[in-house]
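Bit of a strange request maybe. I'm writing a small parser for structure token strings and I need a real example to test against, not something I typed by hand. Could someone generate the tokens for this chain?
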Amino acid sequence: MEKLQQSKRKVDQIRAENLFKVLKKLKEPLKDAAMMNATRWALYKRLNSTGLLVECGTGARTKYNRLKMGLPKTHYYDACCVGESTPEEITIKQEYVQVWLALGRGTRKMCNTDKYGFPVSHRARQKMHFGFMTGDLVVADVPEGKYVGRWVGRVAVRASGYFDIKDGSGKRVCQGISYRHMKLLQRADGWQYEKLRTEKGGSGASSPGVNAGASGAA
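Reply from user aminoacidic:
Good idea to test on real output. This should exercise your parser:
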């Protein structure tokens, strides 16, 4: 009897957790999905009007083809496995892929706000410090200290001249690096360009944006 009651309590708990997840999903906006659906069918109709052969594929078909080929889950491998016309065998010779990400050109906000919209701090009017501005792609050769080695990524500038470097995912990989150790590779133009090694058979890709760690290996 006690085991039956324990099982019932466990079932009730699982139901409550699932109900919470469902209710949370109901509050999520669907405008992004609606925009993609509208764009997809508009593009399909426009391509059909050209008279060219157009083929559509489903997500299930793409996943089936990708698993059959034994390829990892990535955008570039999914693009090779779309539709019924996917060949029986795919040979991947490309060792690197180019990843472009739209970052924008900053913000026009004059102050930072809390979650209620009240100002908590003012933003600096000056964007350029020591020849660098936030979002520039730089390479830093750090000769000593905690972050010794070579680092490549997007810089977050400070008026003090000690900057942070972020990788492709936006994570800070090193902090407080003097601008004297940095060289400009590309000005911030609203885009992020990365060259990543392709994944092979489920193995992890190289860390985006970082060429070397604290060990200083090239």
